[in-house]
Design brief:
Distance between the termini: 39 Å
Largest sheet: 8 strands, mixed
CATH topology: Rossmann fold
Number of helices: 8
Strand content: 15-25%
Strand order of the largest sheet: 1-2-4-3-5-6-7-8
Structural class: alpha/beta
Order of helices and strands: HHEEEHEHEHEHEHEH
Number of domains: 1
Shape: globular
Number of strands: 8
Amino acid sequence: MTVEDFIREFEQGMRDVGAADDWLTARRRYEDLCDTFAPADPPGLSWEDGEVDGVRIRRYVPPKAATGEVLYLHGGGWTLGSVRSHHGIVADLAMRLGQPVTSVGYRLAPEADYGQALDDCQAVLEACRPLALAGDSAGARLALDLARRVGWQGPLGLIYPPVGTPDADSLGPDAPLLTREEVLQMWRDIAETVPALCEAHPPSPLIEALAVDHDPLTSPFEAAIGHWRANGADIRYHRAPAMVHGALHAQARLAPMGEAWRAFCTGLQERLSRTPA
């Protein structure tokens, strides 16, 4: 698959999502869309759905799993996404890390606000006591804010997150699948309930970061990485050439995305190997 093929197919799918008459239908269409790019479950992987303090989770266990949990927060613009939409990503992550990974089905807007979504993630974190925390896009922003809220000191994996307060001056140029105005609109929808957490210090001393070439979120993310490094964080940064926001769903079919994803997972695994269980 070429990135042009992915963009065309994902754009068509998102048009169908946007044409839905209600959020339930839109979310199911988004899950179906993500399913079309997900690889088959890796041999030997087991998973099951459950709840933690009323929050839906899906827990993945690879064969001969090491001790210690990893928590994953899915993307989807805070209105879409679920443990099902990100099944392929999290299943692959669990196998590459060799660790159990718990995917969090936090509440979504507009039914819930950002603070409630963050509360859900914190409830699961406190129950699971993970060794590492990771997420993509909107979920990466939740991971970043959760890390700051609880004083996280373990490995933190961030995949193309919105950082700081997105505005017209900080965002990079429009890109396929995500424009500047789309970012700003999503931010306006949740901004009132985003907690005012201190951004003067890195969200974790150990950060594995992944971005893509064509994404208005990449420029502010890189600027934040530079600031966090200057303030003492140990950060490994991976950037997938020619890729676009959302391409992680098709990492098994897009070679540059797959290569960057493997490097990200290897880096996170190496950090986990040095983290006491």
